Each structure stands twice: as structure tokens, then as C-alpha cells.
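Quiz preparation item.
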């Protein structure tokens, strides 16, 4: 029995969207599904039990951070990441490749992210470079990447083989090939160079994964490996990457790299029209409601993002009408729940005014209650997409949701 299989139950008419089930050793994932981010083996401020109550089906953890602290060998000795963090559902780990970007060209530059909003953002980042520039703590060569720890400056060298070994030690159900995520501001020449490197690393990741997997007698306990399609908004490079990565014997695929906000849907469509239909696809690092509708229609089955918990810790709250900020004066005496008719624990139990007070008082409980709500909101929004895709009412649900929210 393979460690991961994927069934497609229904396809969305006139689009690439589909409803399916991913079967893993630690349970089934009903897709499309939002993947909650637990960077260091925990979703910030929540217990696994609280997370489960939100309806979250799976978690993605960060290989780079767990390698640094407490160390992948220590987690292996704890019985693996599932046991260590007391999470009994499906679990993913990334490859550490995103840190090539975040600790490299983007390190210390607030104007640079993997999503570009056009020329204005480029001008912003250039104007701030002297103010915010920090020395890169990443050095890339043909064989791998040298990282300097963001905490103590110690040097660490990642190769595709090293990344795969770390992820095998962590023991997630789904792991990713090592890759290089490039900035949307890089030249086409560099994008080509990085893409060729990512493709070489993908093959090396796959070969090493297969070698390590032969040591695991029970095939169902072997992690599934996803290859990552890279590049930016260039159509030819995106399609080239999808063709190459799709031709390799991966169990599924991640869609990474940088995007231009206004045409991200085109880039995702180029890729998913090429990738093998019978294998699951994960859009990495995307989580705003409008983007999630796009991702589903363009054929993505999974997507992860830190946004729900990150904005929650700053008082940002999703509601069906709009995103609100509890630090605004209007919520000091607001006795309503965060979002009326929401079924989460927070909305059943607490008022906006009370949670706003917790934020002003700098109480940790504020983070917990806001995060519970935001994760519940996004998870159930995607769950509703799945439900309406099955009943044939997806278009009306999308239209109604977006009209109210935006």
C-alpha cells in the first residue's frame, strides 16, 4: 500500500477545479483544504486540541526552523514530529527552500515579498534599501545553500540530500523537494539559472528520498514526496518547470516561486494545465480569501499561509462582511461576537469588546481567541467551497461571499 493516494470525486465545470480525497497514513484529507501553518511544530498560541476543534485537517511545519531548534535528530528520538507535537492528523514539512529567499534577497527588506504588487512596490523597496538592508545570511552554489542561523549566526549547509534526510527524521506524511524560491524582482537571466538549479535539486531530492525509503519496510509509513514547480510570472519558464517536475515520479506537486498579484491566476493555470491530473497540487504560501477562490478554480487541492494567525496576533479578524481590526476605537464597547452566526468557540463565548480589551492589555489569551476564529473562518470557507462544488452551487457561493467580503 502506498503512503499517499488521491481520489478525484467531482470536477468543477469550465475550470480546473476538483473535489477529492488524499489518503495518508495519519488520515484522509478532504480537498480542497486549507493547510494550517505550524512553523516550529506548533500553531502559535493554540494547543493541538484547540486546532482540531477549528476543523483544521492538517498542519505544515518548517524544516529549517526545526532543524535549528530542537534539531531533527532530537525530534526523531521523541518518536517523530506527530508524537512530539501531539498532532494525530496528517502533517507536512516544507524543504527549507523558502529560506533561500526569505533569508537571502528578502532578508531585512520589508518591500520585498514573493507576491509583487507591481512597479510601485519595486520603487518602495528600492527607496527603503539603505534604511532596512541587512547582510544576506544565505549563499547559494550549484550543490546547495549555506545558511547562517538567524538566531546565533552559526553556519549550516543544506543540500537536496540533507533536506530530505532532515524531513525523513521529522516523519511527516508529506515532504517537499529542496528548491530555490526567487524574488519577483530578479532578472529573467537569474530566473532561468535558478530554475535549472531547482530542477537538478528536484531530481537529487527524489533519488535520495527513494534510497532512504527502501530502508522503510512498511511502504505505508514512508513519507510522500512532492516536487515543486518554480519560476516567476514568465509563461515559458513556468511551463518548462511544470513539464519537467511533472515528468518525475513525485507523489504530488507544490507550486512555489514568486508571483505578480494581478496575474497570479494565469501562472497557476499555466502550471495546472500541465501537471498530471491524477496527483494532488499544493499552492505554497497563499491564503487571502480572493486568492483561495482563484486557487480552487485553477485546480489546486491544498494551500497554506500564515496570514490567519499572523493577522490575528495583531488584532486582525476575518468576518463575512470584511476584515476588521479590534484595535480600532469602534470595538471598545461592541458587545457582538467577532462574526455573527460564526460557529467557532470564540464567537460562541466572547464579545468583540472583551477581546479588544485583551489586546490592549497585552494578554496572551487575545492571540488564542483571535487565532481560533480566523483559522475556523478560513477552514470553513474552503469547506463550503468543497460542499458547493459537490452540489453545483459553487459560482453562486463565490459571488455572494466576495460581494459581502470585498
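Solution:
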Amino acid at each position: 500500500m502506498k503512503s499517499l493516494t488521491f481520489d478525484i470525486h467531482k470536477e468543477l465545470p469550465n475550470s480546473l477545479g476538483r473535489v477529492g480525497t488524499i489518503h495518508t497514513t495519519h488520515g484522509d484529507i478532504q480537498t480542497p483544504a486549507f493547510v494550517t501553518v505550524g512553523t516550529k511544530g506548533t500553531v502559535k498560541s493554540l494547543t493541538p486540541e484547540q486546532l482540531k476543534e477549528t476543523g483544521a485537517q492538517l498542519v505544515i511545519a518548517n524544516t529549517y526552523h526545526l532543524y535549528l531548534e530542537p534539531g531533527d535528530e532530537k525530534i526523531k528520538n521523541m518518536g517523530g514530529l506527530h508524537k512530539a507535537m501531539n498532532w494525530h492528523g496528517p502533517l507536512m514539512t516544507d524543504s527549507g527552500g523558502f529560506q533561500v529567499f526569505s533569508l537571502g534577497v528578502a532578508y531585512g527588506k520589508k518591500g520585498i515579498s514573493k507576491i509583487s504588487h507591481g512597479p510601485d512596490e519595486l520603487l518602495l523597496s528600492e527607496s527603503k534599501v539603505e534604511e532596512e538592508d541587512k547582510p544576506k545570511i544565505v549563499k547559494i552554489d550549484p550543490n546547495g545553500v549555506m545558511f547562517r542561523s538567524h538566531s546565533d549566526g552559526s553556519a549550516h549547509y543544506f543540500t537536496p540530500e540533507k533536506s530530505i534526510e532532515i524531513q525523513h527524521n521529522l516523519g511527516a506524511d508529506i515532504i517537499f523537494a529542496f528548491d530555490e524560491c526567487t524574488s519577483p524582482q530578479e532578472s529573467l537571466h537569474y530566473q532561468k539559472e535558478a530554475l535549472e538549479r531547482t530542477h537538478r535539486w528536484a531530481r537529487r531530492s527524489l533519488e535520495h528520498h527513494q534510497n532512504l525509503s527502501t530502508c522503510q519496510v512498511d511502504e505505508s509509513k514512508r513519507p510522500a514526496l512532492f516536487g515543486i514547480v518554480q519560476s516567476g510570472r514568465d509563461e515559458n519558464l513556468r511551463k518548462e518547470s511544470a513539464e519537467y517536475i511533472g515528468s518525475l515520479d513525485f507523489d504530488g506537486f507544490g507550486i512555489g516561486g514568486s508571483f505578480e498579484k494581478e496575474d497570479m491566476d494565469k501562472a497557476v493555470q499555466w502550471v495546472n494545465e500541465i501537471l498530471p491530473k491524477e496527483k494532488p497540487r499544493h499552492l505554497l504560501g497563499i491564503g487571502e480569501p480572493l486568492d483561495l477562490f482563484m486557487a480552487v478554480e485553477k485546480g489546486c487541492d491544498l494551500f497554506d499561509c500564515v496570514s490567519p494567525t499572523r493577522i490575528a496576533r495583531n488584532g486582525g479578524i476575518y468576518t463575512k462582511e470584511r476584515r476588521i481590526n479590534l484595535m480600532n476605537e469602534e470595538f471598545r464597547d461592541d458587545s457582538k461576537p467577532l462574526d455573527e452566526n460564526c460557529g467557532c468557540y470564540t464567537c460562541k463565548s466572547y464579545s468583540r469588546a472583551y477581546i479588544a480589551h485583551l489586546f490592549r492589555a497585552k494578554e496572551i489569551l487575545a492571540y488564542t481567541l483571535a487565532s481560533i476564529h480566523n483559522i475556523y473562518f478560513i477552514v470553513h470557507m474552503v469547506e463550503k467551497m468543497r460542499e458547493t462544488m459537490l452540489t453545483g452551487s459553487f459560482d453562486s457561493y463565490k459571488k455572494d461571499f466576495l460581494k459581502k467580503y470585498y
